[in-house]
Amino acid sequence: MACFRRTRLVFTLLASAAALAPLHLHADFAQFWSAIGAVGIADESSTSLISFSDTGSVTMKSSVASGTAQLRYPVYIVGNMTKDLSPINDRWCLGMQYRDNGDHSQVIAALKSVNTSTGAVVTYGTLDSKIYGDTGTAYQTRFNCVLANSDGTPLSSFFSGDTAYYIDVKLIKTASDGNPGLKSLQFINSFNE
Fold first, then answer.
1. Which residues contact 8 (CB under 8 A, 6 or more apart)?
2. What dihedral do alpha carbons 66, 175, 71, 75 form, nearest 10°?
3. What's the pLDDT tens digit per position in 20-67?
4. In DSSP terms, which residues pair with 75 in a beta bridge?
5. If you average pLDDT over every residue of the chain, what do you get?
6. Which residues pair with 172 in a beta bridge?
7. What is the pLDDT of residue 193?
8. Which CATH superfamily does the domain covering 32-192 fall into?
9. What is the DSSP string of 94-135?
10. How far apart are the first and last CA of the chain?
11. Are 140 and 98 in contact (CB under 8 A)?
């Protein structure tokens, strides 16, 4: 009988300790950076050229006959982006979901950074809708997994101590029938592409 009481007492103490301990959630999935087109920061001269949609996309206004709108998307180093991928021979990829309806529209996205101490700007790679062909009225997703540091090595790490990363996007419309659009931007590692 004493053994049963001790076991019950120990079990009760362990159960109470477990109930009082903080709950730790564990996520076994990758977390990457992504942004909808509507969160881009337009240059002052570009604000009159663009239209933000309730679907999250950004497009050139239909009333604009031609022009180039420039938007910037700050990249916040979060989740798996804080890891160095070089030990596993992986690299980071820039993704873009865009619309390019023909000869008179184009979308260009470039991953860049600025060194907050020196002011030096580095371009790691670009995505250009003209390389992939027209999408018509639909949106299409493409990735660039050959992003490179200024020394030519693959981009496998982000150094946010003195470096601010951003994606520079240009929506280009050269005639009234052009309809360039951007729905989203994304970072993933190449093993997940």
1. none
2. -170
3. 444 444 445 667 899 999 999 999 999 999 999 988 999 999 999 999
4. 165
5. 86
6. 68, 106
7. 62
8. Galactose-binding domain-like (2.60.120.260)
9. EEEEEE--STTEEEEEEEEEEETTT--EEEEEEEEHHHH---
10. 62
11. yes
Q: What is the rounded CA–CA span in Å between residue 22 and residue 39?
A: 36
Quick one: pLDDT band at residue 13, thresholds 50, 70, 90? very low
∠ CA 100-76-70, rounded to 5°: 35
Half-sphere exposure of 60 (CA within 13 A, CB side): 30
Beta bridge partners of 109: 127, 169
Q: Look up residue 112 and give its two tokens.
A: 């860049």
Q: Is 83 helix (H, G, I), strand (E, B) or coil?
A: coil
3-state secondary structure of 2: helix
Look at residue 7 and tell me whether its pLDDT is greater than 90. Answer: no
Kindly write down the DSSP assignment for every residue of 5-71, as one continuous string: HHHHHHHHHHHHHHHHSPP-----S----EEEGGG-EE-GGGTTTEEE-TTS-EEE-TT-SSEEEEE
Q: How far apart are CA 155 and CA 146, in angstroms?
A: 8
**Which pTM was predicted?**
0.82
Q: What angle do CA 42, 46, 51 make, to 5 degrees?
A: 80
Give CA separation, 146 vs 26, 45, 127, in Å.
32, 32, 11
